[in-house]
Amino acid sequence: MMSMSIVSGRVISSTGRLKMWPVLGVSLMVVALTLLSGIGVSTPSWWTALLMLLFGAGLGTSMQPMSLTMQNALPARDMGVATASAAFFRQMGGTLGTGVFLSVLFGAVPERITSAFRRRPGTPAFQAALADPAVRANPVDQAVLSALSDGSGLSNGTIGAMALGDTSFIGHLDRRLALPFLQGYSGAMSLTFLSGAAVLVVALALVVFLPRVTLRKMSGLETRRARRPPRRALSFPRRCSRGSGQGS
Hints:
- This protein has 248 residues and is mostly helical.
- It has helices at residues 2-15, 20-36, 45-73, 79-119, 124-131, 133-137, 139-149, 152-155, 158-161, 175-208, 220-227, 242-247.
């Protein structure tokens, strides 16, 4: 993010062109979120990190050029208002977006976990876990087994709601019992990433229709000074010297 902000700033300073950078940045974020929606439990960490790097590059490519576009589209006297408004709405959008997307994530987690457990009972690995004495002796595993034993955990969604609070118990579960929880969270994250990509597609459509703005060659203060009318020099009448008055 920081490196692309620096690169885009240097290129904009040399060329004066602004519009291409927000379009490029939002496009990179759409691609990154679309690819992130396909990650799963077995996805390697390096691929996830690479996609996060791609998203950060898009964010750095779009944020600063968008601020520059706003500052250069308005008169010099309104540059401070434009900068403050951009920072304010960016903070409000970040707060609102965090709340909305976390609601999407945790709203989808119980149903995804329950669906993952419904698909697991027929697999040999899951049946072996249910019959494993070590699994039955583990108190953490017993809570999951008791929710699955009578089927009530699947019918009323109790098994999925277990992961809405403290999720540290998943790390102590047997791998075969923990896998449906991981798959449920992975599926909910995929839905969240796709929702973010859909919002960014709308943002991309808006950015494409932004007017072309040329970078100013002078700062806001220099522009205001250049537009001020020149001050007229004050002239004072010259006083006659005492010697010249006596000679006359």
